[in-house]
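Batch 3, record 17
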Amino acid sequence: MEISRTINEIRRLLGTARQAKQTVGLVPTLGALHDGHMSLIEQARKETDYVVVSIFLNPTQFGAGEDLNKYPKRQRQDLDLCQNAEVDAVFMPGTEQMYPEGYCTTVTVKGLSEKLCGASRPGHFDGVCTIVAKLFNIIGPDVAYFGQKDAQQALIIQRMVQDLDMPIEIRVCPTVREPNGLAMSSRNAYLSESQRNRAGCLYQGLLKGKQLIRSGERNPEHVIKALKEVVNGAGPSEIDYVAVVDPQTLEPATQASRTWLLAVAVRIGPSRLIDNILVDIAGPE
Amino acid sequence: MEISRTINEIRRLLGTARQAKQTVGLVPTLGALHDGHMSLIEQARKETDYVVVSIFLNPTQFGAGEDLNKYPKRQRQDLDLCQNAEVDAVFMPGTEQMYPEGYCTTVTVKGLSEKLCGASRPGHFDGVCTIVAKLFNIIGPDVAYFGQKDAQQALIIQRMVQDLDMPIEIRVCPTVREPNGLAMSSRNAYLSESQRNRAGCLYQGLLKGKQLIRSGERNPEHVIKALKEVVNGAGPSEIDYVAVVDPQTLEPATQASRTWLLAVAVRIGPSRLIDNILVDIAGPE
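Prediction for the assembled complex:
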């Protein structure tokens, strides 16, 4: 496994891979890899010849007062995990590589970026789009892998790729969960054991919402109310949002949408946790 | 010469060129080609194997009340000019190809885009950056060619390419001028003969400024004053800006800059005309 810390170095490796007509898969991460990331790497391994994992704790997607400084860093463990998963190259640039002095360009997906998580994290998705555009231009992957757990992020990146005509396929892979349903996240590391147990309420709430829809409920407000009851019933927490939206527009769901996105963001102790599920409102399951 | 009206078609052509290991040069234009464009094409012909000219009157770089609707269109003549210049492919997409419904992504180069022309054309450079990013992603050129006449545009695109790590070389080619010094521009077509004669005052003013600097003047305000006198002496016109700035930051020039950018935007009759020259304040010339 190669480890590149500079743009020139990773470009040289990719040049060799492409000359050998290998297809390239990219798994972009902030580090602190968990089973969710590993499932993306596994999918990339299956579908592409040369798998690159980027590990870069991107400062521009963190707002003032957010957890940039305490975000978990486990460089040695991350590299071991990549090595064991047969990753071909890890791209681990420093901040000065990615944002040299004078840097002033931003990619914005208007309309989608202000909703849900964007409402409480202004500028977050601009930071995400910009770093992802940079990684795409540096690595030039054929396919890039993102998790469904960050549904809004995946949607916004798909929109960016489509709007800017980037010749890249985006694959969104299923959320990986702890036994109690808690979606895997690097931020779960901040939780105490009792908080972690309690955090299962996000998924339980989503399942409750799905069950209501399955039994015929078509009023999004009723689904939201039931979901909130599950979260509130689990113990002290601060709900950022509970939303039932169209998965393409993120506008409030109507019966015109075939699929509803049930999405939730809750602060439990030190962590802001998010989760979501898609429910096909026409289908039987 | 191939003519492509869709993204898929031009991508197919480029795929063939790249398989044959040809380097690709791109000359992006709004159409209504003139000798300035032809000099870019000629340069691309010299330096790259496969030359693409894009002709797209990009609506997102025109503001409300600007000249989008009356911008000259000369499709037949443009294609003849490209054919005669041995262009390999012309990419002529429709607006619905470039901006399909739901489009919502923008590339912004903050700081540089609000100055000079950006001050009187808000959003203009966002439109330019976004369409150029799209063209770069569609065509994937090795080198792209821009004119020094649009100095701020060239600077902003170089900044975007650097900041987003686009693997593309930007070549900025010298301004081509009419015999009276008027910089070639599609917008010169709006001018009457007397206005066209008078419009020579922009370049005469710039040369006056350069001469002052050569003779030792180091106060930008004095250069600006002399330049304005030349423009105002030529007849009725409305000065948008006359500026002496650092060519990298577009901040007011100081003696710390090795080179000064003298830039001017003037409305003469129906046309807003721009021009500029670079003056090396250290050098002898």
